[in-house]
């Protein structure tokens, strides 16, 4: 577990170690099957996998990545096919959201397991069943890592979490835990998921009221609370920017007074949350059909 946080070279060596990832996944599967999701070894295994999934999209060799994620659509000859991993432009991001992926391998091996739906479901199972904060945080953090990029893999993982594995109820529960780091990681994961336009309505329907409910009345607490608050505001921004319906949902959840109060907090320490709330307010005002409701 310590070695897995030793930086890019350490992660590379461990990902390439024959049988290591498979053994970690095998152990966790056994712990879940035996109804023992709270033992220390399971926590260690999940924390290692969390660390090995960090910057996975960027650090995978391009040749390896492209051999797995070749586009099945035929592209015009004058259109340059973007690299599957590590691309960061907005146009590429929008284009790749709808890029179809090859069928998953039924028996993934090694590094392939890190983004496979089997492991995604394991993380969601641990989020739901484990009561160890570190195990919950590492499971959420691994999913956060896997959904952080702009290539096909993060969007495929996001679709699996939201639509195929029905993971939102478990993530929503983590918004209400008392452990600040777990809550912060759950919000960061939702922020990543909310970037995928095809999932925004599902996410808004399932968790938008909960996001509003955990917003503080004003930001007068720790840095972790400030960062979590900013992350919630940006998630709500993603969910409401293009949807008047979702903006109305935020309004009906009594989110507006909280967001206004956060935006008016002029303390330098909490400027990140204040700025995020202001960006959200500006975006909400763009829905002209809601102006009368806002004024009321």
For the termini, the CA-CA separation is 54 Å
**DSSP summary, beta strand count:** 0
Low-confidence stretches: 70-100
Class per helix and strand makeup: mainly alpha
> What's the alpha carbon Rg, rounded to whole Å?
20 Å
* Largest beta-sheet details: none
Shape: elongated
Explain what this protein looks like in three dimensions.
By secondary structure, this protein is mainly alpha-helical. The chain folds into two domains: 1-64 and 109-171; 196-295. It is 63% helix and 0% strand. The protein is built from 17 helices and no strands. The chain has helices at residues 8-16, 20-33, 40-52, 56-59, 62-68, 90-96, 117-129, 133-146, 152-164, 168-174, 180-193, 200-214, 223-240, 244-252, 255-263, 271-285, 291-295. The chain is elongated and about 60 Å long. One of its GO terms (biological process) is heart development. It is found in: Cell junction. InterPro entries: ARM-like (IPR011989), ARM-type_fold (IPR016024), Armadillo (IPR000225), Plakophilin/d_Catenin (IPR028435).
């Amino acid at each position: 577990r310590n070695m897995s946080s030793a930086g890019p070279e350490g992660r590379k060596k461990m990902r390439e170690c024959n049988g290591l990832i498979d053994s970690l996944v095998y152990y966790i599967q056994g712990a879940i099957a035996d109804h023992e999701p709270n033992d220390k070894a399971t926590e260690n295994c999940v924390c290692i996998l969390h660390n090995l999934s960090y910057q996975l999209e960027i650090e995978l060799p391009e040749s390896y990545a492209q051999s797995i994620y070749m586009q099945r659509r035929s592209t015009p000859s004058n259109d340059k096919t973007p690299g599957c991993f590590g691309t960061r432009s907005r146009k590429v991001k929008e284009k790749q959201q709808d890029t179809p992926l090859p069928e998953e391998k039924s028996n993934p091996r090694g590094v392939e397991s890190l983004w496979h739906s089997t492991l995604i479901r394991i993380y969601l199972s641990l989020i739901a069943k484990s009561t160890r904060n570190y195990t919950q945080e590492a499971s959420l953090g691994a999913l956060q890592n896997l959904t952080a990029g702009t290539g096909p893999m993060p969007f495929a993982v996001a679709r699996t979490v939201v639509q195929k594995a029905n993971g939102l109820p478990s993530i929503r529960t983590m918004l209400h835990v008392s452990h600040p780091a777990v809550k912060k990681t759950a919000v960061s994961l939702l922020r990543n998921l909310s970037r995928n336009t095809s999932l925004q309505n599902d996410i808004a329907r399932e968790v938008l009221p909960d996001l509003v409910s955990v917003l503080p009345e004003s930001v007068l607490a720790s840095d972790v609370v400030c960062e979590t608050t900013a992350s919630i505001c940006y998630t709500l921004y993603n969910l409401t920017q293009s949807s008047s319906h979702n903006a109305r949902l935020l309004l009906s959840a009594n989110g507006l007074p909280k967001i206004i109060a956060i935006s008016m907090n002029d303390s330098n320490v909490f400027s990140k949350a204040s700025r995020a709330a202001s960006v959200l307010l500006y975006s909400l005002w763009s829905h002209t059909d809601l102006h009368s409701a806002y004024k009321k």
